Amino acid sequence: MGMPEIPPRDLGQAASPDFDALHFRRTLSQFATGVTIITTRTSAAAVAAGAPPFIGMTASSFNSVSLDPPLVLWSMAMRANSLPMFRDGSHYIVNVLSASQLDLCKRFATLKGDRFAGVDYRLSENGLPVLKNALAWFECHNRSRYDEGDHVIFVGEVERCGVLESHEPPLIFQNGIFSTTTPLEG
Fold first, then answer.
1. Which residues neighbour 85 within 8 Å (Cβ) at sequence distance 6 or greater?
2. What is the Cα–Cα distance from 109 to 37, expressed in whole angstroms?
3. Cα distance from N-terminal residue to C-terminal residue, the chain
4. In the chain, pLDDT over 90 holds for what percent of residues?
5. Can you tell me the distance from the alpha carbon of 164 to that of 153, in angstroms, rounded to the nearest whole number?
6. Cα 73 from Cα 157, distance rounded (Å)
7. Could you tell me the CATH number of the domain that includes residue 81?
8. How far apart are CA 24 and CA 17, in angstroms?
């Protein structure tokens, strides 16, 4: 028996998916990610209308891109109310959360209104909130944005970064569950 004949296909374009959105989401959920809170300033017009001075959102889409120049990326749903502030702002902070910051993660994922009320932070050189006890933080120039599907991909050029000198484990999200890391014996 020979190899089965594979029908030719135009490899210059993607084939239609052979799955539905629910299956895709479930499959993606198997990839464990760290959890971040992205913070920036609210526009002057929004503050004048009574909005809080800062906004932030929980994101697990963070990733490194390049060491030279230092670039990172993350993505945001196009339907997000805060998209204009992140799209139009010059800078933002990526705060990497520790396992002890689960409540903060949930607050920035769901709370409406001033998510910073009662939250401990300091201001960066550009006047943006760096969350207290974040394992690491990256202050980024909003270098480029790409509309792809139902999200916007943000690429940030890191101007400053820092790491918390502690042995606290990171907050991890996988299969719809928050957890943390446990070293494997190897």
1. 40, 41, 42, 43, 46, 55
2. 9
3. 43
4. 74
5. 27
6. 9
7. 2.30.110.10
8. 10
**Rounded-to-integer distance, Cα 154 and Cα 144, Å:** 6
Q: Which domain covers residue 125, as residue numbers? A: 37-167
Give the pLDDT of residue 103. Answer: 96
Tell me, what DSSP letter sits at residue 170? B
- Read off the pLDDT of each residue in 81-100 and give the average, rounded to a whole number: 95
**Alpha carbon distance 150, 79 (integer Å):** 8
CB 77 within 8 A of CB 151: yes
Please report, as a single letter, which amino acid is at residue 185: E
In a domain, 132, yes or no: yes
| Residue 67, C-beta contacts closer than 8 angstroms, at least 6 positions apart | none
Residue 21 lies inside a defined structural domain of this protein: no
- Residue 184 domain flag: no
What pLDDT score was predicted for residue 14? 85
As a whole number of angstroms, the distance between CA 95 and CA 162 comes to 10
Q: How many domains does the chain have?
A: 1
Q: What is the pLDDT of residues 99-131, one digit of tens each?
A: 999 999 999 999 788 899 999 999 999 999 999
* Beta carbons within 8 Å of 123's beta carbon, 6+ residues apart: 129, 130
